[in-house]
């Protein structure tokens, strides 16, 4: 199946009930997040969002977020709903004397994914990923495209009229997330990766010029000392594969060479997945959960120089 055939189904709007929202409010909200996450929040304006991660001291990803301002003292962190409670509890332990309140705001807000013309209608013609603007009560964040189709994240208070657009099947949105190549962390793969293992430095998820945050030393060492041995790839499997499943190379069927990060049914059958694998195995025959994996071209370039 060609990319055009895939993309033909990627059109409309769907409610994203698999995502949740942490609200950081107070005069120190941005300053607090700046010291905890992999991105620069000190310079975050109202026209941009941030892809970012919260790391352990060993540099392993505990959560990933799409973050943006809803007010001068109000920052929202969108993440996988299954890891939100633990992420909120971990971040809250570091608040100490900072003038910031962290809370689960999921019940007060609604999230939609927009694709194709539904997204394009609310995005500026020359915009790029992580641009953000407000449309009435809604905030719209431009995401990485999937198979050439525009995509956006739409967020507004509960009760706001839903965005215009045909009904998009939720499973097709999940597939578009995979085909965008930008991974969203979920519970089965918590603490499995440093950000570069998911290509976060290439899709705007890491800022190497900001101050300290937990795990920064590991991230910097991986980037600048050439120690990174794993990368994320998009792959297709004819059979079912599950998030967290180990990936094996035919050259060494006893020792796993990677992990399935994210997976969704493909419109043409089978499953598409984001897999993080050892670079040395990228040219080998691969399988996960008994299903053969075919690596597909990454939809973006990897940064060779920061």
Overview of the structural elements:
- The chain is α+β, with helices and mostly antiparallel strands and 306 residues long.
- It has 2 domains: 3-169, Probable tRNA modification gtpase trme, domain 1 (Gyrase A, domain 2, 2-Layer Sandwich); 187-296, Elongation Factor Tu (Ef-tu), domain 3, CATH 2.40.30.
- Helix content is 14%, strand content 33%.
- It has helices at 3-7, 29-34, 84-92, 117-120, 170-180, 216-224, and strands at residues 12-15, 19-25, 49-55, 61-71, 74-80, 101-104, 109-115, 132-135, 138-142, 151-157, 230-237, 246-249, 258-265, 271-278, 286-288, 291-296.
- A 6-stranded antiparallel beta barrel has the order 11-14-13-12-15-16. It has a 5-stranded antiparallel beta sheet with strand order 1-7-10-9-8.
- The chain starts with a helix and ends in a 10-residue tail after the last strand.
């Amino acid at each position: 199946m060609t990319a055009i055939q895939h993309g033909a189904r990627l059109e409309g709007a769907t409610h994203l009930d698999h995502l949740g929202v942490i609200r950081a409010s107070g005069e120190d909200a941005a300053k607090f997040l700046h010291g905890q996450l992999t991105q620069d929040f000190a310079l975050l304006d109202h026209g941009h969002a941030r892809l970012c991660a919260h790391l352990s001291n060993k540099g392993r990803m505990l959560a990933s977020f799409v973050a943006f301002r809803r007010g001068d003292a109000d920052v929202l962190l969108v993440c996988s709903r299954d890891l939100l409670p633990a992420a909120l509890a971990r971040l809250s332990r570091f608040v100490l004397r900072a003038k910031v309140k962290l809370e689960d705001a999921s019940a007060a807000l609604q999230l939609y994914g927009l694709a194709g013309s539904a997204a394009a209608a609310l995005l500026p013609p020359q915009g790029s990923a992580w641009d953000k603007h407000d449309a009435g009560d809604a905030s719209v964040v431009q995401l990485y495209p999937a198979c050439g189709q525009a995509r956006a994240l739409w967020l507004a208070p509960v009760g706001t009229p839903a965005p215009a657009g045909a009904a998009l099947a939720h499973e097709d949105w999940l597939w578009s997330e995979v085909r965008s190549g930008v991974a969203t962390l979920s519970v089965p793969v918590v603490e499995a990766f440093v950000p570069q293992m998911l290509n976060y430095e290439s899709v705007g998820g890491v800022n190497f010029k900001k101050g300290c945050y937990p795990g920064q030393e590991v991230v910097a060492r991986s980037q600048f000392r050439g120690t990174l041995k794993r990368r994320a790839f998009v792959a297709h499997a004819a059979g079912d594969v599950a998030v967290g499943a180990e990936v094996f190379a035919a050259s060494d069927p006893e020792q796993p060479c990677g992990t399935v990060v994210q997976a969704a049914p493909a419109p043409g059958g089978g499953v598409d997945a984001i897999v993080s694998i050892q670079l040395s195995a990228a040219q080998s025959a691969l399988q996960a959960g008994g299903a053969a994996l075919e690596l597909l071209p990454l939809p973006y370039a990897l940064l060779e120089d920061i």
